[in-house]
Design brief:
With 493 residues, the chain is mainly α. It has helices at 4-8, 15-33, 42-46, 55-72, 74-77, 82-103, 111-142, 145-155, 160-178, 180-195, 199-217, 225-232, 245-260, 281-302, 306-327, 349-354, 358-388, 392-402, 408-418, 424-436, 446-454, 461-465, 468-488.
């Protein structure tokens, strides 16, 4: 639920719309909360209790729903979204542990412990992976990489139509590398810098950027948290995501071609915007590329978890920071003889770690553990038939639509922990739909929410909603293209 509270607390939506969205949200949570189960083996599986009709099960669902309502109201009550879900995770697992220890007997002593460790290990691997990626992005931002890119585009004097395609195209091809949120923010800064008072251009360009960033992130393990989760879980190999490239292009191009028609032939005034790369910027870009290469090679050759390669890449960055401080034009020294951190060429990797999106990371922890606990209670056995026994394609397409209302993270966590029997084509499909489904609403993706704040009052929920029909055409067309490609290749659907 990518900041649905921003929409609910704004004046954009009427009371009826708010009730509708809240109803859909609560319904979706009740469905998704039951879609996880602990994939235990041996004794733990044999002694697992079914708590779906127990007071603990009902109480746990109520706790989770209440926590998510608080997340929805983040913009109103100013309570960071990570706090309620972290507490909810602790309460849910405490209740489960209590009932197992009291009612389960000696055979259940270690069942909940093993289950919790299973889910926590999944989170820990993704946590460290994302932390390293965020650190590299923060390092490149601080070294002026993205400012330099923005200044170059602004100073070139492109026309509005050219900027529409350039910003959208760059969003599509950058998001697989630096994630869709960062890409969207950089491209939106360009649009705002050159758009001036041309609100029509800013609105259409922002929508185009959101769609492009989400579509581009769908065909790379590094493009979105959901694609990363699918890769780490071993459902799709690294190179397997590239099969979504053509469907992703279709998803981006169809609404882009339709929106392009409303742009005029004008040209913004040239700007004198300047930006200078700081010492070490190019080196950090190179090390980021080497980190990605390390991750891929280690995982493909040794089959070790991708987090090992990312943490090795963190070591690259730390050593490079030491090199910059020690040997590259040091700034004024402190009394202890060390370079003063904060000088133009000084570099401290731990400052970049500190600026990571900690609220997002802890929110991710809460979601994984909450939904994992609800699944361990036993709701999978009640809802798996409703979700997938009538066909994986329909289920995956529907879940993609749900991701436009709630966050795609709990949707993908639910699917992965449920781990339905699906072909490779269907795992690619759910990766595609959860990745691009959020583009249909401005509140449906982190990129859309961020741009509503960046272009406040211009790019709004209502402005985006006017083009939802075009984005939906791209959504369903990309699904059709993916299924057609898999059929032509002879892959089972």
């Amino acid at each position: 639920m990518k900041h649905l509270g921003h929409f609910l607390s704004s004046g954009i939506a009427g009371r009826g719309q708010r009730v509708l969205f809240l109803f859909l949200f609560l319904f979706d949570l009740l469905v998704l909360s039951g879609s996880l189960a602990f994939a235990a083996t041996g004794t733990a599986e044999a002694v697992r209790l079914n708590l779906t009709t127990h007071w603990v099960g009902y109480t746990s669902i109520a706790i989770f729903v209440f926590a998510y309502i608080l997340v929805m109201l983040e913009e109103v009550i100013h309570l960071r979204k990570s706090k309620p879900v972290i507490i909810a995770a602790g309460l849910i697992w405490a209740l489960v542990g209590y009932v197992y220890s009291v009612e389960g007997g000696a055979a259940h002593t270690h069942t909940t412990e093993a289950a919790f460790r299973h889910f926590f290990l999944e989170f820990a691997e993704l946590f460290l992976f994302l932390l390293v990626a965020m650190t590299y992005i923060n390092a490149m931002t601080e070294r002026g990489v993205f400012d330099a890119l923005r200044a170059w585009m602004v100073n070139k004097g492109f026309s509005y139509k050219q900027l529409f395609w350039i910003t959208g195209g760059m969003a599509f091809f950058l998001s697989p590398i630096i994630d869709n949120l960062t890409t969207a923010l950089v491209m939106c800064a360009v649009v705002l810098a050159v758009g001036g008072t041309n609100k029509n251009f800013i609105v259409v360009a922002c929508i185009n950027i959101v769609v492009a960033a989400n579509a581009g992130g769908a065909f790379s393990p590094f493009g979105d948290i959901t694609t990363l989760m699918v890769w780490v879980a071993g459902k799709i190999p690294f190179a397997g995501f590239f099969a979504l490239f053509i469907p992703s292009v279709v998803n981006y191009m169809i609404p882009a071609l339709l929106m392009y028609r409303v742009l005029g032939d004008g040209k913004p005034e040239a700007s004198k915007d300047t930006a200078v790369l700081k010492e070490g910027a190019l080196g950090i870009i190179f090390l980021f590329a080497m980190t990605i290469l390390t991750v891929v090679l280690l995982h493909n050759i040794t089959h070790l978890p991708p987090v090992l390669g990312m943490m090795t890449g963190m070591g690259y960055l730390q050593l490079y920071g030491f090199y910059l401080r020690r040997f590259r034009h040091r700034g004024p020294e402190t009394a202890s003889g060390h370079s003063a951190v904060g000088s133009p060429v000084a570099f401290d990797v731990f400052q970049k770690v500190a600026r990571a999106e900690w609220d997002t990371l802890f929110f991710f922890y809460g979601v994984v553990l909450c939904v994992g606990g609800l699944g361990f209670i036993g709701y999978l056995s009640l809802l798996s038939t409703a979700l997938y026994d009538n066909g994986a394609t329909m289920a995956n397409v529907t879940l993609g639509l749900f991701s436009a209302i709630v966050d795609n993270i709990p949707v993908m966590v639910a699917v992965l922990q449920m781990s339905p029997e699906m072909t490779n084509a269907q795992w690619l499909l759910i990766t595609l739909t959860t990745g691009v489904g959020g583009s249909m609403l401005s509140i449906g993706s982190a990129a859309g929410v961020a741009l509503m704040g960046q272009a406040r009052g211009i790019y709004t929920f209502g402005a985006h909603l006017k083009w939802t029909w075009a984005i939906a055409l791209g959504y369903f067309a990309s699904i059709a293209v993916h299924l057609a490609i898999q059929w032509l290749l002879g892959n089972p659907l």
